[in-house]
Amino acid sequence: MKAMVVVAAALVAAGCSGRSEAGLDPTPAPPSASVPSGTALVLRTSTSGGIAGLGGPGSLPDFSLYRDGRVVAGASGALTEYRLTPRAVRRIVSAARDAGLATPRTVESPYMADAMYAVITFVVDGRPRTTRLVEPVSDGRAAALLALLNPSAWARGDLAAAPHPYRPAKVAALALPGSATGAPRWPFAVPLGSGTRVGTRTCTVLTGAEARKAPAGRWSDWTEHGRSYRVMLRPLLPDEADCSALA
Q1: Which residues, other chains included, contact 96 with Cβ-Cβ below 8 Å and sequence gap of 6+?
Q2: Count of the separate structural domains present in the chain
């Protein structure tokens, strides 16, 4: 996994003890509306900046850790779900504390207009603290935290269950006006031409059987009512109730 990050970390509940061994408030950030409390976000990482302008509205994070120990990680839509033990979760939260992420800061690069950044948001007492670090990260403790977020480096004892492909309960359709000719007709009931604005795109949500059929994680061309659209089918993560979470 890349070491470029948005970390949104609620101070995860410290397992069964009800306290955090990281020495921080164990109350996680409140989940979005209609999202169960067990899926409250603890830690999130994504890539920001660069020539491609990564990290904008609607983009997928690289890594998301939840209160119940679930992790969703990957890139583009090829997401994998893991389940960490409470001890492994506490170790990650402790590393976030040791990296000083409770105090926001920004480390810019005066030499690169298109620099890549690790944008780190650590939620303390229910409030996010955001840190932006230019890549490559020179802060040793922040780098140590990022190393802990690489699933390929986890010991077998860190996992409470075998990993498997992430299967979203909801998929967001992020649509832009298109120009392709001969594109297939949009096969789902939700419309493309209206919905919530997410950046420059219109967002609607597929659920149930439609979400299971949607080829999430890639752009494709569709037509609806004689109009052409360029659509990204973006899986919603466990803490994302609807399109408003993507703005």
Answers
A1: 7, 9, 22, 43, 122, 145
A2: 2
- Strand bridging mode 78-84 / 70-75: antiparallel
The rounded distance, in Å, linking the Cα atoms of 139 and 193 is 45
Residue 119 forms part of a structural domain: yes
Does pTM surpass 0.85? no
Number of neighbouring beta carbons within 10 Å of residue 110: 7
Helices 140-148 and 86-98 cross at an angle (nearest 10°) of 160
Query: pLDDT of 7-17, one tens digit each?
Result: 444 433 333 33
Please state, in angstroms and rounded to a whole number, the distance separating the CA atoms of residues 171 and 178. 20
Helices (H), 99-171: 140-148
> Where a domain ends, among 165, 189, 204?
165
Beta-strand relationship, 6-9 and 116-124: parallel
